[in-house]
Each structure stands twice: as C-alpha cells, then as structure tokens.
C-alpha cells in the first residue's frame, strides 16, 4: 500500500469514527445505545452504503471482537463492587448457565419452524444469541441512570459478564459436533461426547486461572509505586494484564472471557485503590474497542442479504424477547423469591450486542452449510434488541416501580 492510499484509509477510518461519535451524542437523547450508531455507520460505509467498501473478513472481525470483548469484560469486573457480586452471584450464575442453555433450546425450536433448519443449526443460532451483552448492558445502565435495588442490579450486571463464556462454549461445541471427523466417513461426533468435556474444560480452567490470575495480579499491583493514574499508565497496565491473562487462558484451553471477568472482580476486591485509579483511563480503551468492533460488524453485514431474512429474523427476535428470555428468567429466578416485577425487568434487560454477531461468525469461518443465514438473523436480533429494548428499559423500570429514585 502506497503512502497516498494509506493516508486515504486513515482519513476514511477517522472520518467514520468522528461521524459515529457525533451521531452517538445525539442518539443518547432518545435513549438509543451509542453502540447502535457505530454499527449503522459501518453499514453505511459497507458494500450497500454510499461508500460501497467491500469487506468480508470474518477472521479479522472475530479476532478484533475477541480482544474487544476481553477488554470490556475485564473492565466490567474492575467496576463491580464485591458487595454486588455477593448479592448477585447465585441468580446471575443460574441465568448464565441454566438460563443460557434454556434460551438456546427455545430459540432452536423456533428456528426449526421459522427458518426450516436442522436441529443442530437451530441450536447453533440459539447458542449464538442466548447471552446478554456486557458492553450493551453496562452502556445502557450508565445512560439511563437507573437506581435499582442492589440484588436486582447485581443480578443483571453480573449475569452479563458471566454468560458470554457459556454461549461461547456451546457455540464452539456445536461447531465441533457438526464438523465431520476425518477418516470416519463424514460421521459427526456424539453431541454429549464433545459438548460436556469442552464445557467442563473451558469453564473449569477459565474459573481456576481467573482466580489465580486475579489474586496474583492484585498482589503485584499493590506493591507497585502507583500513587495516581500516572497520566494513563495505570490504565495501560491494567489493559495489558487483562489481555495477557485472556491470551494465556485461551492457550491453556480455558475460557479467556470467564478468566478475565473473574480476575477483574478479584483485582477490584483485593487491590481496590489501584483498580479505581485505572478506571477513567481504561474507559477510553474500552470505548475504542467497542467503536472498532461495532464499525467492523457494520461493515461485515450485507444489508440486501439481511433484508431477505427480515420476516424470519423478526419472528425469532420477537420469540427471543417475548418468550425464550422471559421463560428462562422465570425458570431461574422464581425459585429464588424474585418478584414478578423484578423478573419482568430482568427479562427485558437481556440486551443483545456484539457477542451474538461475533459468535455467529464462527460457523461461517468453520464452513458450516447455510451459516451466513444464521449470521444475518443474529444481526437482526441484535439490531432489534438495541432499537426496542434499549430505549424502553428506563421507562419500564419506572412503570414497574423499580427505580428507587421514583419510590
């Protein structure tokens, strides 16, 4: 690439970011997620937009997505107070495991009818869209300025940080199940034989390394001469530690997403002063990560192909928001004594964001037949979630009398 082309590319990317930021500032007034604007700008710059930039690099999108999500989850852990973790661990843990699995199964049944796909592909779509998105939830809660009862707020926020690993493991396990084994005449591996060991390895190693890494990181940073943010160096230190832990955990076969979230929680608990000092600078890194990720995902989508699936996409999005997610919430939270108002709000606060789109890109990379349809439907689910659930979250909390400032 020559200097002229590189300059043009740099100018184009910078202009897209500026347009997205300006649009996000205005969209905030209407309760829309800032992240939605970045995605729309990416779509407008893409192959069907005015700029017509061709982009189909799913590998790049997945790699950027993984790094961005790791940074977002580590930041989310650092921002979560230990008292909130104690209050929300049991309900959030149930939602992040049983709730994710139940949601995936119900979406699979719906996809089997609406998209006429095999059960395996339906489960793959269900797994991809089953988890709530930490970035979307944190951003929407910050923008809405809701003051919820602590157990309720803790359940929603901790769940959004914990359920991504479960959805990731289910997605990867299903892909391994669907992929033919070499030398076996194209026979697929047994579903349980693939899923259960992978689930145990990913979650077990992720939790173990997250605890060990979080304790070691906290012990080390407490001994460093960090008196203030040192012009952003404290944030850079935390970001580097989070990404190192993420990469090391993945290399060892565990869930890097679970590891960095747990590590962030423990660093906040055991080295709170240093963690709090790093948060303002780290916020800039997470916003940059989110901006890059949503711009890339917007570029990756081909709107005219998505439009062909708008009817089944609407049906699956509606089924997820109105049936699957509420049923999973009732299954997990009713036995724990949550009121019907709280259950309604938890069900509606299950915002989808970048995670389902990134997870839906994995089957495309794996060459699963018809995977592009799953990717387009996952994109529609995310788009509708951000458009419908995001702006109505605060009004619903007030209507259900859950906002403590209104009581």
* Helix-strand makeup class: mainly alpha
Largest sheet: none
CATH C-level class is Mainly Alpha
Rounded mean pLDDT is 83
Structure description:
By secondary structure, this protein is mainly alpha-helical. It has a single domain, classed as Na+/H+ antiporter like fold (Up-down Bundle), CATH 1.20.1530.20. Helices cover 78% and strands 0% of the residues. The chain contains 16 helices and no strands. It is found in: Cell membrane. Residues 17-398 form the Cation/H+ exchanger transmembrane domain. Pfam families: Na_H_Exchanger.
How is the topology of this model organized?
Blueprint: H1 3-27, H2 34-45, H3 58-79, H4 82-114, H5 119-128, H6 134-144, H7 150-178, H8 191-223, H9 233-251, H10 256-270, H11 272-300, H12 303-307, H13 310-333, H14 340-348, H15 354-366, H16 371-399
Helix pairs in contact: 1-2, 2-11, 3-9, 3-10, 3-11, 3-15, 4-5, 4-7, 4-13, 5-7, 5-15, 5-16, 6-7, 7-8, 7-10, 7-15, 8-9, 8-10, 9-10, 9-11, 10-11, 13-14, 13-16, 15-16
Features:
407 residues, 78% helix, ion transport, globular, Na+/solute_symporter_sf, mainly alpha, cell membrane, Na+/H+ antiporter like fold
